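Q: Please design a sequence for this.
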């Protein structure tokens, strides 16, 4: 599951640079789960291997580098996010899911045999992270661009049987509001929306 990340305007040191990324699939929530979950669930929220790699590296694939090819800038090339920032995002995802599932009558228990495995598979930040700023001294926090995220989830019964999947991806393509947001404004918005949609899918109320 990929995304359409059309064009982003990156403003760095007062200079606007137009960045275009490869055309990929669109936005939206998809699920193969057709009935509410009837048991308690265990939440397993994690980063994809690729995102864990990007904490301290640029994406492995050139096509994931925001259309800037061999650029070493973590901000424009979607890498060097820093482990702390990515850990905060996964923590937010887990917290929001716990909150929304509780509202929908789904009980979360670490000892439950049914597991909801949720993976943060991609993120784009609106402003440079501390790690990106440290890697590139000429980069400014005043730089901004469009962001978003992609999330995948699987509901798994005891014994490993898959009960269904969910996925959500959203990337802002309008630069107008990016200058007013924080580092992860669009990614946080995606996380919050996914939590609501996932809870609605799994919930009984």
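A: Design:
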């Amino acid at each position: 599951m990929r995304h359409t990340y059309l064009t982003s305007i990156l403003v760095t040191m007062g200079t606007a640079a137009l960045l275009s990324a490869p055309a990929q699939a669109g936005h939206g929530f998809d699920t193969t789960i057709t009935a509410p979950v009837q048991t308690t669930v265990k939440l397993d929220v994690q980063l994809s291997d690729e995102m864990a790699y990007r904490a301290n590296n640029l994406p492995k694939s050139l096509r994931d580098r925001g259309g800037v090819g061999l650029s070493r800038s973590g901000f424009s090339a979607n890498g060097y996010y820093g482990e702390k920032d990515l850990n905060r995002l996964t923590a937010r995802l887990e917290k929001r899911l716990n909150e929304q599932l509780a509202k929908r009558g789904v009980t979360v228990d670490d000892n439950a045999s049914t597991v909801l495995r949720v993976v943060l598979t991609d993120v784009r930040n609106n402003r440079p992270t501390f790690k990106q700023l440290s890697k590139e001294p000429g980069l400014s926090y005043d730089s901004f661009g469009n962001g978003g995220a992609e999330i995948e989830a699987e509901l798994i019964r005891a014994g490993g049987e898959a009960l269904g999947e969910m996925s959500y991806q959203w990337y802002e393509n309008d630069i107008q509001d990016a200058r007013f947001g924080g580092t992860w404004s669009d990614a946080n918005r995606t996380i919050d929306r996914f939590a609501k949609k996932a809870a609605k899918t799994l919930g009984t109320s």
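Q: Thanks. Anything notable?
A: The beta strands are 7-12, 15-20, 28-31, 41-47, 114-124, 148-156, 162-171. The chain has one domain: 7-202.
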